[in-house]
Amino acid sequence: MKLPPFDYEAPQTVSEAVELLAEHGDEASVLAGGQSLIPLLALRLARPAMLIDINGVRDLPGVSATDGWLAIGAMTREYAAEESETVADAVPLLAAALPLIGHEAIRSRGTIGGSLAHADPAGELPAVARALDAQFVVRGPAGMRVIPAEEWFEGFLTTSRGPDELLVEVRFPTAGPGTGVSFQEVARRHGDFAIVGLAASLTLSDGVISDARLAFAGLSDVPLRATAAEELLAGQRPSAELFDEAARRATDDADPPADLQGSSEYRKTVAAALVRRGLRAAADHSQATERQ
Amino acid sequence: MRVNGATRTGSPEARKTLADFLRDDLDLTGTHLGCEHGVCGACTVIVDGRAVRSCLMLAVQAAGSEVTTIEGLAPDGGMGTLQQAMWDSHSFQCGFCTPGFVMQATAFLGDHPDADEQQIREALSGNICRCTGYQSIIDGVLLAAERNRSGQH
């Protein structure tokens, strides 16, 4: 359908955008890449009175790595992050997930901040952010605040961003030596929403797992960390038996949603398979990075 | 904005998508609208060198951009290498999805002249065709890549 009418503002600076948000609050939606919001408008699932288009806001795109963190400006396009060597070197898990987001033409416009503020629980970036304990930097009338990923994702398409706040930057911790990663997903075709996705990161030192991180997409109304499996893995040496047990622990308590693409039981089975695959791939990758 | 090399101006309502602006205001009806919510890929055009869905971009957001539509690929009603290769491969039947596939493949081959079949399949995975079963489309893009490399038309 054609888009419903709305008022439209295109601020040039973060301060102007925040002022507009403070003025219009819940009545306004922030338009970033538009690859989720415009379909919601077309389908009448969202009816904001005003769109605040931040595509022209200076300083919002950009990628930089300093002091153990990769800072990504909220308006960095997904294709730009995908092509960035800084991203690939600093946060390989993010680099592994980016090509799986939507299709080529979607990544031309879609943004890192937009995707994470939209917070679709089946999305790749929310799972990566949750797995790595990313930090979300928002600006509001009262100034800046930094929100950890654990608190950012509150529910289906819901974050802890206030209606008068703008997401300006997302920070991911950079991967240390011996860290291997893998992003796994099962989808009907390349680029579709994952039926289940998994962000996996393993850090090995002297052959022992010192840090394990697993987060699922598509299993709940928020990206889901598999803490029981992570605890099992820490301190162990990688083996097929260990990964089998991790897959059981990661999915034991899961109660995934059912839809046309798969029943709850199917999703659970796929999730366990992805844990085994993801851990194996991350362990192999870790051995490769350890040798470098 | 510049469309197919010419400067075009307009004052569209904010809610008008780039697709509707191209079709209704500029009379460039080669860009097709299928689903109008970013799923089918029929409305794909090239904006500043990247393939985008013109139904998921507001016309006002294209101000100052360089836009290429299917009409801008070859002069005077002729066909470019990709179009000819797809013609020769019987890539399409009803033709509704054609402009989207051609624009997506044009952008992709521009960046990946040596793409193999798997890469082409992934690049075109966001475009839906309900006639062909896709094989003839992939064949056409592969043939175009081959012709580009060997300098044939």
In brief, what are we looking at here?
Chain A is an alpha+beta fold.
Whole-number radius of gyration of chain A?
19 Å
**β-strand number of chain B:** 5
* Strand segment tally of chain A: 14
Text of the CATH class of the largest domain in chain A:
Alpha Beta
Please work out how many helical segments of chain B DSSP would assign. 5
Helix content of chain B: 25-40%
Alpha-carbon distance between the termini of chain B? 31 Å
Biggest sheet strand order of chain B reads: 2-1-5-3-4
Strand content of chain A: 25-35%
Known CATH architecture of the largest domain in chain A? 2-Layer Sandwich
Q: How many domains of chain B, as an integer?
A: 2
Shape of chain A: globular
The whole-number mean of residue pLDDT values of chain B reads: 95
Describe the structure.
The complex is a heterodimer of chains A (292) and B (153). With 292 residues, chain A is an alpha+beta fold. Chain A folds into 3 domains: 7-52, Uridine Diphospho-n-acetylenolpyruvylglucosamine Reductase, domain 2; 63-173, Uridine Diphospho-n-acetylenolpyruvylglucosamine Reductase, domain 3 (2-Layer Sandwich), CATH 3.30.465.10; 179-286, Enolase-like, domain 1, CATH 3.30.390.50. Helices cover 37% and strands 26% of the residues of chain A. Chain A has helices spanning 14-24, 37-42, 78-83, 85-90, 92-97, 104-109, 112-118, 124-132, 149-152, 227-233, 240-252, 264-291; strands at residues 7-9, 28-31, 50-53, 63-66, 69-73, 135-140, 143-148, 153-155, 158-159, 166-173, 179-186, 196-205, 208-217, 224-225. A 5-stranded antiparallel sheet of chain A has the order 4-5-10-6-7. The N and C termini of chain A lie far apart (53 Å). Chain B has 2 domains: 2-72, Beta-grasp domain (Ubiquitin-like (UB roll)), CATH 3.10.20; 75-150, [2Fe-2S]-binding domain (DNA polymerase, domain 1, Orthogonal Bundle). Chain B has helices at 18-25, 81-88, 98-111, 117-123, 135-150, and strands at residues 2-3, 6-7, 44-47, 50-53, 66-68. In chain B, strand 1 and strand 2 form a beta hairpin. Chain B is globular and about 45 Å long. The N and C termini of chain B lie far apart (31 Å). The mean pLDDT of chain B is 95. Chains A and B meet through helix 2 and helix 6 of A and strand 4, helix 3 and helix 4 of B.
